[in-house]
Design brief:
With about 450 residues, the protein is α/β, with parallel strands linked by helices. It has one domain: Metal-dependent hydrolases (TIM Barrel), CATH 3.20.20. It is built from 14 helices and 15 strands. The strands form 3 sheets. The protein has an 8-stranded parallel β-sheet. A 5-stranded antiparallel β-sheet has the order 3-12-13-14-15, with helices on one face. The mean pLDDT is about 95.
């Protein structure tokens, strides 16, 4: 068992009322329900710090496009979203995450086509149905093409309506209590799709209600050029001007940061959600994870939207982050390239790092009093049997799915099968939804 701080041979956990009551090694205490998994490594439930779950309905589009090319291809298709499609997509995304050992996820949803209702509710309902601990982000786009933004005018919202609906979702769904299963986040999409005024007002709204803030920052050089040309500011400078810094903020990507900005991110206690597969898929670049960690920043992992990362598996992102950090170090001709990020450090990104980005001090490690969120991975299968270091082996050869997953003390995956939904039905529903949005 890897707690996040130490490794315990023949370890066990006792769970009571959704929390870890005891942990130890050797003969376990008696319990009403038992998972016996001597062929497994138990780790804290994995944390997904950035996602766009609706994109499960539009996977495989623009496979060779850059970020802006990819977005322009998909905006017209996303304009056909409705609550039913979002529900099917969210269930597929969440099922995949749970099966890969993820127990806590955010979702940055910023597409609200005019006249469509119930979209945010569909996300919350999906997490409740499947048993995933969830931080839904009420995202937004307000800066259309006619005003110099990237999204089409038909897909942006009126800013007063955005703020009113965001506040309504906070009041309806946000639960700030320890062990909460749902916390709402305020999340305008990006510098090229919302106005500075909306960014400021969104930050003020979030802080009035004590909720967290999330947005895309420094993902591509195209974004950097946009910010410099329109605002005469680099992306991080713009965020600083707009009040988007502090320990209640985390950014997606954070790729194109210079040396001074890496230090400023760490000093401001801003979190960074590193999304290596998506960044490589879109040719966006590589986050300076090793530099951010060295500076003391909080870094987690995200699968990002499944239209730019067609396999939403946090264990795979851990593997990608591990290798990408070493490639970056080698390119910079550092002698310590092989240890720029080690396997246990990668596990911490996938667990405690993501929990810190999401502002959860009750998740991310296995400790008495913390949430009973646990993932168990087999180490006697063909991919891992005989590995000298099983924990490192699971990072070097990321598992396709978990053997068992516990969220809030409830078993949601057992013997590699999802218990809270029919996997085949979920697959049929997302196939139907994908056909519907492509033909609408």
């Amino acid at each position: 068992m890897f707690t996040g701080h130490q490794e315990i041979a023949d370890g066990w956990l006792l769970v009571r009322d959704g929390l870890i009551a005891e942990l130890g090694s050797g003969v376990p205490p008696t319990a009403d329900e038992v998972i016996t998994a001597g062929n497994c490594v138990a780790v804290p439930g994995l944390v997904n710090a950035h996602d766009h779950m609706y994109q499960w309905a539009t996977r495989g589009y623009a496979p060779d496009g850059t970020l802006f090319e990819w977005l322009r291809t998909l905006y017209p298709i996303w304009a056909r979203l409705d609550a039913d499609i979002v529900h099917a997509a969210a269930r597929a995304a969440m099922a995949r995450l749970l099966l890969s050992g993820c127990t806590l996820s955010t979702d940055h949803h910023y597409v609200f086509p005019r006249g469509q209702v119930g979209i945010f509710e569909a996300l919350v309902d999906s997490a409740r149905e499947l048993g995933l601990r969830f931080h839904p982000c009420r995202g937004s786009m307000s800066l259309g093409e006619s005003r110099g933004g990237l999204p089409p005018d038909s897909l942006v919202e009126v800013e007063d309506a955005i703020l009113a609906d965001t506040e309504a979702m906070i009041k309806r769904f946000h639960d700030p209590s320890p062990g909460s299963m749902c916390r709402v986040v305020v999340a305008p999409c990006s510098p090229f799709s919302v106005t500075p005024e909306l960014m400021r007002e969104s930050a003020a709204l979030a802080r009035r209600h004590g909720v967290r803030l999330h947005t895309h920052v420094a993902e591509t050089l195209g974004e950097e050029r946009f910010c410099i040309e329109r605002f005469n500011r680099r992306p991080l400078e713009l965020m600083e001007d707009l009040g988007w810094t502090g320990d209640d903020v985390w950014y997606a990507h954070g790729i194109h940061l210079d040396d001074a900005e890496v230090v400023r991110v760490a000093e401001a206690k801003i979190g960074i959600a590193h999304c290596p597969s998506s960044n490589m898929r879109l040719g966006a670049g590589a986050c300076r994870v090793e530099d951010l960690l060295r500076a003391g920043a909080q870094v987690g992992l995200g699968v990002d939207g499944s239209a730019s990362n067609e396999d939403a598996n946090i264990a795979t992102e851990m593997h990608q982050a591990l290798y990408l950090a070493r490639v970056r170090a080698a390119i910079r001709e550092r002698d310590d390239a092989p240890t720029a990020l080690d396997a246990r450090g990668a596990w911490r990104l996938a667990t405690a790092g993501g929990a810190a980005c999401l502002g959860r001090d009750d998740c991310g490690t296995l400790e008495v009093g913390k949430c009973a969120d646990v993932a168990l991975f087999r180490v006697d299968d063909l991919a891992h049997a005989g590995m000298a270091d099983p924990l490192a082996g699971l990072a070097l050869a990321p598992p396709a799915r978990a053997e068992a997953v516990v969220v809030n003390g409830k078993v949601v995956v057992r013997d590699g099968r999802l218990l809270t939904a029919d996997e085949d039905e979920v697959a049929r529903d997302i196939a139907t939804a994908s056909r519907a949005i492509s033909r609408a």
